[in-house]
Amino acid sequence: MFRTHTCGELRLSDAGKEVTLAGWVQRIRDKGSLVWIDLRDRYGITQLFLQEGTGDPKLMEQARSFGREFVIQVKGTVIERESKNPNMPTGEIELRVSHFTLLNVSKTPPFTIEDMSDGGDDLRMKYRYLDLRRNPVRSNIELRHRMAMLVRNYMSDHDFLEIETPMLIKSTPEGARDFVVPSRMNPGEFYALPQSPQQYKQLLMVAGMDRYFQIVRCFRDEDLRADRQPEFTQIDCEMSFVEQDDVLDMFEGLTKHLFKEVKGLSFDNFPRMTWHDAMKYYGSDKPDIRFGMKFVELNEVAQGKGFGLFDNAELVVGICAEGCSEYTRKQLDALTEFVKRPQVGAGGMVYIKYNSDGTFKSSVDKFFSPDDLKRMAEKFNAKPGDLMLILCGEAMKTRKQLNELRLEMGNQLGLRKPDEYAPLWVIDFPLLEWDEETQRFYAMHHPFTAPNPEDEALIDDPSKWGDIRANAYDIVMNGVEVGGGSIRIHNRDLQNKMFHALGFTDEKAQEQFGFLMGAFEYGAPPHAGLAFGFDRLCSLFGGCETIRDFIAFPKNNSGRDVMSGSPSPIAQEQLDELQITLNVKS
Amino acid sequence: MFRTHTCGELRLSDAGKEVTLAGWVQRIRDKGSLVWIDLRDRYGITQLFLQEGTGDPKLMEQARSFGREFVIQVKGTVIERESKNPNMPTGEIELRVSHFTLLNVSKTPPFTIEDMSDGGDDLRMKYRYLDLRRNPVRSNIELRHRMAMLVRNYMSDHDFLEIETPMLIKSTPEGARDFVVPSRMNPGEFYALPQSPQQYKQLLMVAGMDRYFQIVRCFRDEDLRADRQPEFTQIDCEMSFVEQDDVLDMFEGLTKHLFKEVKGLSFDNFPRMTWHDAMKYYGSDKPDIRFGMKFVELNEVAQGKGFGLFDNAELVVGICAEGCSEYTRKQLDALTEFVKRPQVGAGGMVYIKYNSDGTFKSSVDKFFSPDDLKRMAEKFNAKPGDLMLILCGEAMKTRKQLNELRLEMGNQLGLRKPDEYAPLWVIDFPLLEWDEETQRFYAMHHPFTAPNPEDEALIDDPSKWGDIRANAYDIVMNGVEVGGGSIRIHNRDLQNKMFHALGFTDEKAQEQFGFLMGAFEYGAPPHAGLAFGFDRLCSLFGGCETIRDFIAFPKNNSGRDVMSGSPSPIAQEQLDELQITLNVKS
Lengths: 586, 586
Description:
- The structure is a homodimer.
- By secondary structure, chain A is an alpha+beta fold.
- The first copy, chain A, has three domains: 12-104, CATH 2.40.50.140; 138-273 and 423-572, 2-Layer Sandwich (BirA Bifunctional Protein, domain 2); 291-412, Gyrase A, domain 2.
- The first copy, chain A, has helices spanning 57-65, 121-126, 128-131, 135-157, 198-206, 244-263, 275-282, 299-302, 308-311, 329-340, 370-380, 395-412, 492-501, 506-520, 534-541, 572-578, and strands at residues 18-30, 34-41, 44-51, 71-80, 93-104, 161-162, 180-182, 190-192, 211-219, 231-240, 272-274, 296-297, 315-321, 350-354, 360-362, 387-393, 423-427, 432-435, 440-443, 472-477, 480-487, 527-533, 580-582.
- In chain A, the strands form five sheets. The first copy, chain A, has an eight-stranded mixed sheet with strand order 6-9-10-22-21-20-17-11, with helices on both faces. In chain A, strands 1-2-3-5-4 form a five-stranded mixed beta barrel.
- Chain A starts with 17 loop residues before the first strand and ends with a strand.
- The model of chain A has no long low-confidence stretch (mean pLDDT 94).
- Strand 23 of chain A pairs antiparallel with strand 23 (580-582) of chain B.
């Protein structure tokens, strides 16, 4: 071993000990006759101390030859510091150096290895191995490890078995795009990389495994939006002989356990909200309920007053921003600009100020009397000093627009605190979604999702297909979907009806899901599952926005690893062996 | 929840309780007025009991309608059994049924779901989800889960971080064949699936992560020998600032922990054997030391007696099989046939029987006097009643042949007991291996393996390259290599010399290992690593021969999953998007 201690563990109680440390030179301070070196490893920083005239005179010379990020081994005596640093765990001691061994040199790093680095995103990605040396990045990776351990032990303690499912599986053209892998042993044939182990975990239930989980890599060949990765990690789970409450209780328990262990936070039972209510009151299937500003529908009081925009709208709906009646013209214009951006897409915004003196001022004073405005204010439960913001139009579109405005107001008012957590279950999603373009229904979740038992009979009536609620659930946190799942269909009859509603012919269903459907004929138990996005969950617990910060070696938005230069061309010999030819349009 | 208890948990102390169970119908015994059903789930079997004339008369009818593997829910009262079964944990009770719910029907399974199934290998692979219902297969999967949990907790307790490395990486033409993945977003370019996270784990050491591990899927596109899988799982580890003893101690600790927890076995320190001794005394770099029969070299006593085969041989070497002097002519002929098989390749075998009366009988009596034979027997430390078996020829070839004979004798004599474990470290492997065909040296381990410090200077003398010992180690158990690793080169100069010895031009080294070599310029610490074959480790702990039994969904020898029918052709549209064309020679 190159060390007796790590750079994070020596304390005042170790004073007088002869120790050996190894690590990286973080910083050298040279005051002429005195030199200090900060020596860093994963566990912390220990200050090394050299004084001219004491000890081997060569030591000082050696110390001055070290550059940033040199790797050194150092022997010395632990001594009490003259000026202590209460901000670091080793801040009461330093090491009086008696011997140096240079283990490796380093070129000058392209950016500083400090909490606030001077390196831009691209540079830090190219030298990811140096970026990972920085505390904030390292601590993200440590958090991820800790969370994975907590999840695994919790699941195992609850009788879940972690079972590894294959990575080289069968490609299914439906759904998102697969990454495929040509098979050399079976020329002309391909494996696919799993988008999720969905079918395998259901097979494991058929196999009687009862409770399965896996922290597993998944792959999706999509055009990458910001903060999407072609490979990502799921906490994937499935359980048999359960109903919705059992699944929600189980994974609520897991989530609470993580909050308790990682953040020291305790929670009451997570609220459960229907998808219908989530859309009605928040305009989103993943509402951020860290703050209020629930939607208030105003058709009743806002229509019939001669304001054409409201009168002709399917829905007039607004939010009330507490204490914002003093918003300036400029602020209100900026909000109007915000909702009119193409990403939001509203035509405009109406505001009503409920001034502190009890009077009203609105952008529609021409159409609404103070009494009209008062009635609206009552709908909002508004008080003097509040600001009401109103949108109108087609119901679903307007809700989604108002959701954006609500989140923007939450941001502006500092109501979306990264260290506050508001978990929520969203349940009763629609089972089937109508697609105008292809004129057919699609499974909102996937084709094995069971309907809410109360709605099961509706599947026999095509005119009701849009009304069927799924026995599906999402776990949402701070406006982010962190997981979701459903009760699965285990009954062959119901599954056939579902395929029928999705417009699958028997042949197509057989081709795509044949082996799973075949398995279901041999005694499939009632079962259900859920999957968490692990990268996302880590980023939420880490209080960060981007999942990339929680992945050791992420790819950029073109799916490229700029550090290793992958993907890359391969040798002609490799192509020949696979019996494929490139056909790239230049 | 569909149940109040599992089928494995009810005991006599539960008698009188009203409970609900759910599971699969394992067996129905119909004795006319009495019917018993064995209900099975992952946790065990509970006997259900029905008696004509008691309870709802429809129950009996329902029970008789159930077939094997039907999924049912049953309510009833726990009662004490008349005839108890001490062989099952629930054997003291049965459930007097008050209500049945049929949850799902089942077609008759293609083979029996029993410990000893009547299904052949192929059938059981096709219906793997049914095979997994059988106790022996299920318990293998449970063992694997348990071992993974033990490994993770042990490693985490020793400050190792589990860090996920990418699955879509850069292809390197050297070494085994990569599986490749065409990149749609970067047409004409490919990712590779990792053969191991070797380069990433070394980068993590450069990144200062200090201690890394990962239970990780790896991929190798090789022509599959029996019991090889195209995807397999490794316990992959790397640590910084360590020397060989530190690594061996760490992973010996892990292995002992597994033995203790899983098998209740304690071990002294594992023996350490040099590669040279392993070859000299066992003819194998993975000797099975559960039994003796160490090789004895006989040149000194066997040559110069006029027996040409011996006299002209580079090596005369044998083993002594205790108590086997009574082997018949037929048995000895069979052994001769065994060594002459092309897989072994010996020209013949010489035997010397040391009869219980103290006389000798050998196949070379013509050339050797009783005194000569006695001198040989002394070399073997043989006693009356023993049998000596001798091969001769070119040294390395003969040793490998004798290794096969030794293992065969171990099998014949029942010395290779699956429930006995003999772990062993093999150290000091050669660093470089000469390849006659390509007339160059290859890295026996990989190009980053450091030489044994005592041999480091030899790298400057090409004539000594074959003599350099690597700072590399394998962990061997019962004649199987379960893991291996090495101290890595962290010094750029030494690495360049190594590349030179391997015949890499600077350009080629740069092209293949450029980003890792680049990273090493920024302060790479001394580091070392090891990887266990997890599938193999599980199979050893499970006392089984084949790793396939410890993989939930394995592939066959053509890399095919016969259950799902993967690999398979993909849609033309998928090929078009990837801008590749099939070019299959029919």
